[in-house]
Amino acid sequence: KDTSDSENSGSSNGSGSGDRVVNVCSWGEYIDESLIDQFEEETGIKVNYQTAESNEVLYSQLSMGGVDYDVIVPSDYMISQLIEEDMLAELNYDNIPNFEKIDDRFKNLSYDPENKYTVPYTWGTLGIISNTAKVQEPITSWSAMFDPQYAGNVLLINNSRDALGIALLYLGYSVNTTDEAEIQEAYQLIADAVKNGVYQGKVMDEVFQKMEGGNAAIATYYAGDYLSMLENNEDLAYVVPEEGSNWFVDAMCVLKTSQHKEEAEAWINFMASTEANLRNMDYIWYASPNAEALETYPAYYEETYGEPLDPALYEIMAPSQEVLDRCEAYLVLPAETRTLYNDLWTQLGI
Amino acid sequence: MSKELIRLRNIRMAFDDEVVLNDLNLYINDKEFLTLLGPSGCGKTTTLRIIGGFTTPVSGDVLFDGVRINDVPPYRRQINTVFQKYALFPHMNVFENVAFGLRMQKRPDPKDPSGKRRVKIPETEIRQRVLEMLEVVSLKGFENRKPDALSGGQQQRVAIARALVNRPKVLLLDEPLGALDLKLRKDMQLELKKIQQQVGITFIYVTHDQEEALTMSDTIVVMDKGCIQQIGTPEDIYNEPKNAFVADFIGESNIIDGVMVRDKLVKMYGREFPCLDGGFAENEPVDVVIRPEDIDIVPMEQGQLVGTVTSVTFKGMQYDIIVDFRGFKWLIQTTDHSPVGARIGIKIDPDGIHIMKKSPYSGMFGDYSSFSEEYEEMSDANWEADEEESEDEK
Amino acid sequence: MSKELIRLRNIRMAFDDEVVLNDLNLYINDKEFLTLLGPSGCGKTTTLRIIGGFTTPVSGDVLFDGVRINDVPPYRRQINTVFQKYALFPHMNVFENVAFGLRMQKRPDPKDPSGKRRVKIPETEIRQRVLEMLEVVSLKGFENRKPDALSGGQQQRVAIARALVNRPKVLLLDEPLGALDLKLRKDMQLELKKIQQQVGITFIYVTHDQEEALTMSDTIVVMDKGCIQQIGTPEDIYNEPKNAFVADFIGESNIIDGVMVRDKLVKMYGREFPCLDGGFAENEPVDVVIRPEDIDIVPMEQGQLVGTVTSVTFKGMQYDIIVDFRGFKWLIQTTDHSPVGARIGIKIDPDGIHIMKKSPYSGMFGDYSSFSEEYEEMSDANWEADEEESEDEK
Amino acid sequence: MKNKLSLFAVPYVGWMSIFVVAPIIIMVVYAFSTAAGDFTLENFARMGTYTAVFTRSFKLAIIATLIALLIGYPVSYMLSKEGPQVQRIAMVLIMLPMWMNFLLRTYSWMSILENNGLLNQLFQQIGLIDLYNQIAMHFASDPAAYVPIDHFQMIGTQGAVVLGMVYNYLPFMILPIYSVLVKLDHSLIEAARDLGASSVQVFRKVILPLSLPGVLSGITMVFVPSVSTFAISRLLGGGTQMMLGDLIEQQFLGGAYNPQLGAAIALVMMAIVVVCMLVMNRFGDGEEQAVML
Amino acid sequence: MALVFVFLYAPIFILIIFSFNAGNSSAVWKGFSLHWYAELFQNRLIMQSVYTTLLVSVLSTLIATVAGTFAAIGLASMRRRWRTPLMTVNNIPVMNAEIVTGVSMCLLFVAFFGLWKAFAVWFNQAQDTFWMEENIYLGFGTLLLAHVTFNIPHVILTVMPKLCQMDKNLVDAAQDLGCTWMQAFWKVIIPEIKPGIISGALIAFTMSIDDFIISYFTAGSGVSTLAMTIYSMTKKRVSPEINAISTLLFGAVLLLLIIINVRESRQERLRERARA
Ligand SMILES: Nc1ncnc2c1ncn2[C@@H]1O[C@H](COP(=O)(O)OP(=O)(O)OP(=O)(O)O)[C@@H](O)[C@H]1O
Ligand SMILES: Nc1ncnc2c1ncn2[C@@H]1O[C@H](COP(=O)(O)OP(=O)(O)OP(=O)(O)O)[C@@H](O)[C@H]1O
Ligand SMILES: NCCCCNCCCN
Ligand SMILES: [Mg+2]
Ligand SMILES: [Mg+2]
């Protein structure tokens, strides 16, 4: 029955009748688009590639209904939540032979302890990006994110988990705390900064244009994207602050409502391949969970560009265990804490 | 002009329970120029629309050539209409407007012996008939103009041509001259009459202008409040109005309360006047109509009545003189000037005195005490205040 | 009524090189009711706007009480205007409309001895004057109505009250009755005249309706093509028109080519007619005006001329009879009926014959051969085709 | 026949009930229910938390509307006095930008207003920023501690958001006012002058009150989209100037999923619009004005 | 006034200028290039959304114009008692904040999808011969429905006045001259209100093209109008391809307007000459 389903679907979402299709929703600036073309060529499956701004926006879209994604790429804590809410389909790993190549470090993680639902896509850290031309003293602490000294020059990250997370980190609390008082304290910290006019804006991928164009001095964002920005603005620096940070894994999963499960698994398999990971890494600068790819990347870089990869950059992309030890992964929060996060986050707009 | 063409029998019409036509009976002869005359809202347009088939009466019959046509749709009646504001098709030029009706027509194919196949009128014939008709209304050369680019009088004539080109048996005209200015209106009146005589069909004409009705009609139907007040030739209506409403509506009239002493003798102001009318009961109260032009001004001592001139207006052809007879003001039209304040006598020939039975309209018209009274009626409120006002003026 | 109030001296006006007023000279006396009469586009409104100060003439002087006021803006002239379509302020009620002018005024403070301080008119006085004025125009009780909720005649009177409440020396009225229907128009004519006499100020009135002009005016100024054709009292203008244009524009006229045999004797149709006019050269060709109502119908053998009746129209007060005299058709208005085709004689009293010098207008008016001729003038093209048409009719 | 024709409206009445009325009913249902579907008033009660967003939205929208009015009225007035040729061209020019997507035009403002944007570059070039620094240093209590600025902060401020609103919605203010002014009977103005009004008085007593319907419709047409925008505040306010629109969007497709609350806020917004409509209907018929769009 | 036009056009000119920028910044000029125009036609996302935008605009304009015209005729011939409340409902989408319209329609669709799914699941369980799609999504269909819905009122509002201005007797006259009323409808009413229909269609098309908010809530993830694409692009790196496409569209509109205006004024001149 499954096969017949996927055949007569497709037509409902305006993506051509009878064709094999997969609807992918990922993050913005998160793929080497030539991979899509290659996949389509190789398999004849058409990819409708869409993006969502953040885990929370993706969750809103899924809950609201009416969207027809097959493959999504949420982060660790969001995956837990989706599993909890029974929105993900179990994968048939037989169709994903490349799963083998994933480093064991990234298998059976807490969000998917039995690894039934996910194939990791990338991993990395959250950190502070600063423009050294505008900020003279070196930045080492999350305090820079709340410092009125930089009023109007700081960009707050535009999702509740990361934004409250850095405040919790700065205050020395766990990013996974459920203590309302601690969370309120973190909220207050941000709210005060907002009141003091510290933030020029709340951004997700808008950060590229802001930081590359020198329109802001300090931002919180992800390591991989920092490396992309660096290509366009050499003044930028990245640091995983001394208080520690978040390290994340984004993984590909398939929605329960998916009508194109086979195509979805084909896509996941393709994206898990070493070649795809190398090319993607080279393009988006996020570290791959594919052990082979991650290991051979410096060589791949040198081969491609004729110069060696700066080890400092490699370190930022795929930080050493020592750095990761300072970092904490997000865990799914209990429902009432999530509601609190949502409420506080909405109030923060004020 | 004797054959009966249309008959309205016991027509009743109401909109939302408001009775608009009340038991109307009327017949119209072939080739007649019949005018429906009456004040605004009296039901003229409604009557016309019933004849044209645009409105269905609540009850009663419409007969055409003896056949009941109540349920025949407008486009199947041999009747055409010239609408109040012409209703020319603004997106078509004059030619197309006039040709419209012909293009709609189908008639038995002359080439089909069974006579069942119906074909359109060939373009050459249409062209010829339209041009012919435009010539009748003196609009040759205007074929390509759009209605916007025509003067009111020209539009008027296009509307007539558009109706006539279909060779209807009856032409209905709803105040076709209402929008034109005085001079043009007068010319068009004569023109219309001429066209009617030329094409020799029945015209049913609606107007609220009494002069227009008098000028053009063979028969005038005076209406008020959905009822026919009088039917007759212009002369009948003018000279022998049936009631005060008709008398006042058709021309200026002095209407005075009188008492019929006996046949051919009426008493007004306590004095007896010989007249030509009879057939009333002895001492029956009546309305006496005296037309302003039927009154002669004579030296005081020769006058049947004596009054004081209160106002004189030069009107070109004549003077309009208001004369006060014991508080009742008469309008007299004469070519002789009398100064304001003069005491004058008047004389009325017996044939200038028209006697009418009392009617619901008695006492409502025919006094020239205050010219403002008439428009006061139009103001929809504050009647009392206005009344006071006119009292003061006297 | 003798003091001169306004004088227009050599006024010339042009729009885009199109001359609209050509060397206009006119004086207007105090308390006079003066009417500018003429066909559409002859420059009446323009003249009025020059007096009101809304337009500045190209050359010439406007004098008010002997003072040149060319450059005085409208609101500083002691002149108020009643506009063609009233121009009532739709957002104000009747009271506020009338009070508008008073609220705009400032006058020396009576409490300030230096007389320099200027204050507004106190509300109580405004109230009193407005109510007074509303009473004059019979609109007491309408204070709170918005203009939309008034009939045409009432709006008209508000416009007059609004102008008069400022106690101007002169009131300008531009076809104020144009939008009203016939009956109401006649009433308002008399009303306006009454108001003018009551308030005792100068009215300068614009109309293209000759009857209106005759009814109301002390002086009529007949204009055509930007030039004054004649100035005079209604009687002068009607009885002694200066040229064919005036004769035709003011009432119906038969205008016949004639030759002045000598003083008091004119020759038409080869026959001599006694008349009252003189002062022409011997054998000077002239235009002879004969008013339709000045012609008496007499038995053939008694007639000065003999003709054939070609058309008879009943008009209520009289019959309009068209009589053919050797191809030239006369209009005769008479109370006696003559059947179509009858040969009749006519007689004209010497005082019914008016002699005019030949003018550029000679031959253009005064023939009733074809009633259609007059509106033919309005059609802007195909003159030739129409001409042919009327040729055929003869 | 008349009634036969009115049958033409039947399909549309059906359509309206499904696509206009039903959605609103569903929205009301959402607004009064919990995520589980029980009846609640809590969504409205919680709105108290967002008073600041309401206040800000109203404040910015009112300011934007006023500015648009202050610019739009004189422009319409001057335009209505121009010759017909000028009027036509000017109208086309005013409408033309509307054919370019408003997001693009707003985005373009971003590149102008950025800290390192075109305007700041310009100010840098002409020395305005240096001048400001000198003056500020001069007046600073401790000139040594004065930190010179290298740009004027424009993006991310309320000013920028207001500018975006004025920019986007100004034509909606100009058009209705203009079309009322053009139709104004000139003889009314002459009549007022004739009655002694000076030009200021003519304007105050006649032109202004008569153009009020246009002004009101302009105000509504600027105020409603301003108070409900989310794109403009997002782009030019940098997400720190949250407006009612952002608040709603966030509950549906944004980072704080709560459609019940979103529906409640949307309902309140609709109430605001209804009030605007009622006010407008009182002064003139709304049908006509909407046409001028 | 000139300042107002500078204000209105400055951003547009900047947008246009930077469409020719060699660099990828919209603030730093790196020299002239047509690079982004070439790139534009390679960009699947942009081309696809231009296509979607045009398609949805054209289709919704067509549907709304036809439906709106009929509705307007129906409404105009209704009694006042009925017409007034219907016109009030008609005005809701015009007056309402777009976000409210968008959100409420989104809720409607989602609610309908829910019902549909329940039904389809039941149906599929009940029988085995025909499998009915259980999940339906927001997409082009819902986008089109939304556009039609907000376009119809605009068409009605432009057609209505024309109908009211129309001489009530025209239809009578046509019938009088031999038309059945269907013929009268096509030969008289439609030509008569044609200007209203055309400008209604124009307004509808403009509204569709310019709409972002309602599309945003009703198009779902699968399709994207140009406005939506731009919006999502402003959330990332904006590529000057967008400047290029808007320059092209703007140029097209400008050209169209110039042609229309030139033709109009030429016709006017001809008419004037004819009159003189
Ligand atoms: N369709 C209608 N619905 C309701 N009332 C109507 C309708 N048509 C006419 N009436 C009413 O019927 C009465 C007679 O109207 P009708 O049009 O026949 O008057 P009329 O004599 O032609 O007046 P006018 O001279 O003003 O044209 C009026 O009171 C009018 O208000
Ligand atoms: N503002 C103007 N610009 C150009 N021509 C004008 C203007 N005002 C009037 N005219 C022309 O001047 C001439 C006289 O116009 P005016 O308005 O004085 O005529 P009128 O006698 O009042 O006519 P009507 O009886 O139609 O009101 C007309 O030919 C008119 O076209
Ligand atoms: N360009 C956007 C990349 C997003 C990376 N995902 C980070 C998830 C952190 N929780
Ligand atoms: Mg009627
Ligand atoms: Mg005039």
What can you tell me about this protein's structure?
Chain A has helices at 2-8, 34-43, 55-64, 76-84, 160-171, 180-195, 206-212, 223-232, 261-272, 274-284, 291-305, 311-317, 321-326, 335-348; strands at residues 21-27, 46-52, 71-72, 88-89, 119-131, 154-157, 199-203, 218-222, 236-239, 247-255. Chain A has 350 residues and is α/β, with parallel strands linked by helices. In chain A, strands 1, 2, 3, 4, 5, 6, 7, 8, 9 and 10 form a 10-stranded mixed β-sheet that branches. Chain D is 74% helix and 0% strand. Chain D has 15 helices and no strands. Chain D is flat, with a radius of gyration of 24 Å. Chain D starts with a helix and ends with a helix. Among the domains of chain E are: 45-97 and 138-224, MetI-like (MetI-like fold, Orthogonal Bundle); 237-276. In chain E, 78% of the residues lie in helices and 0% in strands. Classes of the chains: A alpha/beta (350), B alpha+beta (394), D mainly alpha (293), E mainly alpha (276). At the D-E interface, helix 1, helix 2, helix 4, helix 5 and helix 6 of D face helix 1, helix 3, helix 4, helix 5 and helix 6 of E.
Q: What is the CATH topology of the largest domain in chain B?
A: Rossmann fold
* Total domain count of chain B: 2
Total beta strands of chain A: 10
Biggest chain-to-chain interface with counts? D-E, 88 and 82 residues
> Low-confidence runs of chain B (pLDDT<50, min 5 residues)?
371-394
CATH architecture of the largest domain in chain B: 3-Layer(aba) Sandwich
Structural class of chain A: alpha/beta
- Looking at the structure, what is the overall shape of chain B? elongated
What is Rg of chain B? 25 Å
Approximate strand percentage of chain A: 15-25%
Please report the number of helical segments of chain A.
Answer: 14
Distance, first to last CA of chain A: 51 Å
Q: Which oligomerization state do the chains in this entry correspond to?
A: heteropentamer
Which CATH class of the largest domain in chain B is shown? Alpha Beta
What is the percent of helical residues of chain B? 25-40%
Mean pLDDT of chain A: 91
Q: What is the alpha-carbon Rg of chain A in Å? A: 20 Å
The overall strand count of chain B is 22
Provide the residue-averaged pLDDT of chain B. Answer: 85
Quick overview:
Chain B is α+β, with helices and mostly antiparallel strands.
Task: Present the secondary structure layout.
The complex is a heteropentamer, with 1 copy of chain A (350 residues), 2 copies of chain B (394 residues), 1 copy of chain D (293 residues) and 1 copy of chain E (276 residues).
Chain B (H helix, E strand, L loop, with lengths): L3 E12 L2 E12 L3 E5 L6 H9 L6 E6 L2 E2 L10 E4 L11 H11 L1 E3 L9 E3 L2 H14 L15 H13 L5 E5 L7 H18 L2 E6 L2 H7 L2 E6 L2 E6 L1 H6 L4 H6 L4 E9 L2 E4 L2 E4 L9 E7 L4 E4 L6 E10 L4 E7 L2 E7 L8 E6 L4 E5 L14 H5 L6 H11 L1
Parallel strand pairs in B: 3-10, 3-11, 6-9, 9-10
Antiparallel strand pairs in B: 1-2, 1-4, 4-5, 7-8, 11-12, 13-14, 13-16, 14-15, 16-22, 17-21, 18-19, 18-21, 19-20
Helix pairs in contact in B: 2-3, 2-4, 3-4
Chain D lengths: L1 H5 L3 H22 L10 H4 L5 H31 L2 H12 L6 H12 L4 H8 L2 H12 L18 H26 L2 H9 L4 H30 L2 H6 L7 H9 L6 H25 L2 H6 L2
Helix pairs in contact in D: 2-14, 4-9, 4-11, 6-9, 9-11, 10-11, 11-14, 13-14
Chain E lengths: L1 H18 L15 H6 L3 H33 L3 H16 L2 H29 L13 H26 L3 H8 L4 H30 L2 H6 L7 H9 L6 H35 L1
The site of one adenosine-5'-triphosphate has 11 residues of chain C, from helix 1.
